[in-house]
Design brief:
Three copies of one chain form a homotrimer. By secondary structure, chain A is an alpha/beta fold. Chain A has two domains: 17-52 and 157-471, TIM Barrel (Alpha-Beta Barrel); 54-156, uronate isomerase, domain 2, chain A (Orthogonal Bundle). Chain A contains 19 helices and eleven strands. In chain A, the strands form four sheets. Chain A has a four-stranded parallel beta sheet, covered by helices on one side. In chain A, strand 10, helix 16 (369-377) and strand 11 (383-385) form a beta-alpha-beta unit. Chains A and B meet through helix 3, helix 5, helix 14, strand 9 and helix 17 of A and helix 15, helix 16, helix 17 and helix 19 of B.
């Protein structure tokens, strides 16, 4: 039985008539605001002169999206069947026929109902691609044809879609040794899309990586700094940050298992650094170095004004069988308990009062919201709370976030929405969920007389548009 | 003032009219489905040829139910007053008059208002027993008479109640050395009630127990395997699993303090096992052995297809005064923080991808739902999430569960409802709460346009009836 | 644009008409009940014969309230600008002009919208002070004048406000060595306000404090016990408890980082105590001693009947820069993960069954509610759960509390509301939030048929008035 998408104007809003009326007025006032996207993982090549575009429907919606194929895998469907490429490059057993991949996706699409991915895909099908029917076994190939035709049309070239989405600014995430040549090419082009880089030095800070020496060599090469000790290493990082800033970067990004921060002496740092160059780092070395380097990054942010983003608390590549065959980012990263109060104290007591410093905190452990994150954000001038991240980026996840942090931290200590996605067509879908949740939540506050309508209109605009620009100095 | 039970058709549903209408339609479609009960602790003797039946009203509703007398105890009423038997068999100070026990229960029944037990008892009084009045001081003895009369009637013989409850299958929980003779007797009888055993080897896996040697001897005796080392121990366990399977068992059950899993070498295992036989195990030995044995159980489940159930995170017998006087299961088991991501990783990375394996996870630490359990279930094909367990088996507990896990894990990675009760008359009451919460929650999703009515009818049926049968291969 | 406070009768209630009608009936029945305030930090000097009164509007609402200035600080406004006094007494850079402080407060008042402080201040402005307008840049000085005029009037003398607030009893919190002379003076006066002390011996139990020796000397002096060893130390504490009881105290209060409890031997205790007098305590000494002393306090509570209050889980003075300049209680205390099940077990298994003992537990870690606190309170006769504390003392914080604990612990194991404030004018505001949340939550239970209206009226009265009197034996 073929079914059509049901997309009433009031979707996602609580049903009470008085509250819904307010929510709809608020949503009306923010739904067409430009998209500000200060952090994400879209590949800038998509917007380069010789962009290959989006490829097939499977390339667009399935193969790159671990949020989606993860769920099929959890129901016993092999990743090979969805065209996920093997780490070793072997194509054996990997489905190459995108029509077959698409058919499987449509056959099992019903499994996704009630997930966040289902709500984003609904928007992408209906609003972005103009597909009226919900994919299933029967209509799969017709929908494939319909989407492919659109993807081949000029309207669906990435730059045109970027413009249609009204993206005011989009930040990518880039390694410390990245030459940013694609960013330069886009800057030089006639196209006016505002795509900026973000500085993510994880690879050159991870002492324990087998590639550490190689990464440092690349950093040395591109920075022109001969990295022979901790001091020259820091100089090279500072040099790259300066370069990123000239290219428009406004932020740095740091992914760590634990948000531990600490201060080591220069001689200890040098010892750890030299050990790492010889490939002899222990896990303890790595953790201690990482703790110090977060402090170092905070210092540099005070000096150069780049917003520091901290993403912590994920056990990456939990499933060795999947990691060994398919590599990273295949849906088997699992959150762990995260502790902020004690771990961030050394950094915060030193830099958290500095008016030049902004630290955006992200967590996949929502059970820190009211206990740690809201009280920290409600005191330290440097802290802003990123929106619900990853598994929490959803209607309920956002609703719980607002209910849990705002009474203690207020709304002005939030960063506004960040989509953090590598799936470009999901960007407007994700921002739309935020706009709807913001409207619904503020309507809840109005109808209970915590705030009035004037407040609500102001705060909706702030949370959707002004705040991310202010926090990220855009 | 005597009050009557208020049992409107729309009880437990959110009040919004549009949502409630949908919830009632959904509930109407699932309320009369047969009960599938794949895990619980009802004593099979209740259904044997020479069953003693339910006894007095106090035997039925008070004395065996630690969910209930726990609450009276917390308000300062001694357990002795409710006829709870002492561990040493002494009757001194223990109330023997069931009418007096019943009177105390009725006198203090008001203390239970707003608890989950109150909502189950309401159903048991009103629907199961046909009692219209809420027990209080005044009507206590009349209600006692009324119930006793019913319990003496043929309609209230356990087998007849089983049939009236429309229980399609009921699993008990049985020790590894249990001969399952009652199960055999029920199979052999003319009665068609489907009661199956479940394999729970905790007693023969708990190295530190003072009875370990005795338990192993029993296991040896019943399995016919001469248990002299770790290898023969494993053979005996495998042999018992085969026997349980022939008796209809579809699952195993494991209660551990921490869900730690690990792999030890055979020589290390043998050393730990021999030490235990001599009664010399340390706590560390016990923890290490338990971690390995979970892995071993996962391996066996891959081989024999029995669903592995894991119940962890409870500090048993927290109150020594109560434990010393009354023994286990007296309401003083208290949950502790539980960690799944790191602890289960060794087991999952090895067996979690096996299509033959199903692992049902239960927790009394709801603060793992969105952080750990939903992401794990949304990736590993083996994992299914059990419903809210024990203290979380309640209207709010279930509502939070759906709100917290479904956006990440979807609905198809849940197990459906499991009542896990030893209180037989509470079974329909508990399943009714699940059916009402499922209907209410799906209605919430429909009225917000996350899914449509066709989806909702399908998913309600799935969550109430199809899913537990599919997950437990019934 | 000047805006007026919007204070409809139904504020804070959920919008569903059927539920709201019930909520309003319930609220109507409890809104005018006397205030029972069994724990807080109001300075008793406010009510002494020579009370200085409330001072300026800034003295009343800004300078003493770290809940408020914390939020301005988090937005980059220096504490100096709000007249917060420095630890060293220096006035350099500290704003002394209260009109300027008030202007800044009004200029930035919009930043507080949606916080708990905003809802309390709304009540204080509108109901306590009769100010119709919401403070902003424009009306700031007019409002200042209006408030100052009121504060100068007899109606706003503290004793008169106490009477107007209908406070039946107010407990202060007082050091073990406090002579309670102000309390004595109030008792002796013609004024009938019932202000009682509470015994808080933290300063004389904190081995690691640099002032420990000094504190012990004071304790020795006031108790008349020559404190030379652990035994005499205990005698001095017991003597002070007796004195506090004669002065009307009904409770003790203990602030600890972790709720660890333990039992040490007398010789070990003596060794730790002697070390502390020499200023040689380690952190481990301090933790062990604190663990034992909680047990000791439980024993004394069994003997003298004083309710034991335990506040744990806060990392005090997290921000060294603020602490070094301004001292304690400046908004930089941040919660940490708290563990009750294991930590309290030694104390509970020994004293938790004693009918003479009441232990009120408070937490800023709400992620222990359903896992630990509700199961503990639903079993041990001694335990009562304090209401949501500090950062959780808010509309959502309270709503989550009721939803998380009541199904397991029932309502009779709660303590009722405790305002725990040092901001006297916020007392009726805080109690009003509780009364509204209680009414809203009970209405939610009625409209879903968990309880009926008779139950709800009874329970509302119990939660607002009877329960705190019963629990605190007032």
């Amino acid at each position: 039985m073929i079914k059509k998408w049901n997309f009433p104007e009031d979707r996602f809003f609580d049903p009470d008539a008085s509250q819904k009326k307010i929510a709809m007025e608020l949503y009306e006032s923010v739904k067409d605001l430009p998209i500000v996207s200060p952090h994400g993982h879209v590949d800038p090549k998509l917007f380069s002169r010789d962009s290959k575009g989006f490829g097939t429907p499977a390339d667009l919606l399935i193969i790159p999206d671990h949020y989606v194929f993860r769920l099929f895998y959890s129901q016993g469907l092999p990743l090979e069947d969805f065209g996920i490429q093997r780490k070793d490059g072997s194509k054996e057993g990997i489905e190459q026929d995108h029509r077959k991949i698409w058919q499987r996706f449509a056959d099992h699409f019903y499994l996704l109902r009630t997930t966040a991915s289902y709500s984003w895909l609904a928007y992408e099908f209906k609003v972005v691609l103009g597909i009226e029917e919900i994919p299933d076994t029967e209509n799969a190939q017709n929908i494939y044809d319909e989407i492919q035709e659109k993807l081949n049309s000029p309207e669906f070239k990435p730059r045109n879609l970027f413009d249609r989405f009204q993206i005011e600014v989009l930040s990518t995430t880039d390694g410390a040794a990245d030459p940013l040549s694609i960013h330069q090419e886009i800057k030089n082009s006639e196209w006016k899309g505002n795509i900026i880089p973000a500085f993510r030095p994880d690879a050159v800070m991870n002492l324990g990586s087998p590639d550490f020496k190689k990464e440092i060599n690349q950093l040395s090469g591109i920075s022109g700094v001969d990295i022979i000790d901790f001091k020259s290493y820091i100089q090279a990082l500072e040099s790259r940050r300066r370069f990123f800033k000239t290219m428009g970067a406004v932020s740095t990004d740091h992914a760590v298992v634990s948000p531990l921060t600490s201060e080591l002496t220069e001689s200890e740092l040098d010892r750890l650094f030299q050990k790492a160059l010889k490939g002899e780092s222990t896990e303890a070395d790595q953790a201690a170095f990482s703790g110090h380097m977060l402090n170092e990054m905070a210092r540099m942010s005070c000096e150069d004004g780049m917003v520091m983003q901290l993403h912590s608390g994920v056990f990456r590549n939990h499933n060795h069988m999947i990691y060994d065959r398919f590599g990273a980012d295949k849906g088997c990263d699992i959150p762990i308990t995260t502790e902020f109060t004690r771990n961030l104290q050394p950094l915060l007591t030193k830099y958290g009062n500095d008016p030049r410093f902004t630290l955006c905190l992200f967590t996949v452990d929502e059970y820190t919201y009211s206990r740690e994150l809201a009280p920290l954000a409600g005191h330290y001038p440097a802290i802003r709370l990123g929106p619900p991240w990853w598994f929490n980026d959803s209607w309920n996840g956002m609703s719980r976030f607002f209910d849990s942090v705002t009474e203690t931290a207020g709304l002005y200590n939030l960063s506004g929405f960040i989509d953090d996605t590598r799936a470009f067509p999901s960007i407007p879908a994700r921002h739309d969920v935020w706009r709807r949740v913001v409207s619904n939540w503020l309507a809840k506050m109005v109808v209970r007389s915590f705030i009035d309508m004037t407040d609500a209109f102001e705060l909706a605009n702030m949370l959707v548009y002004q705040q991310p620009k202010a926090v990220y100095k855009l």
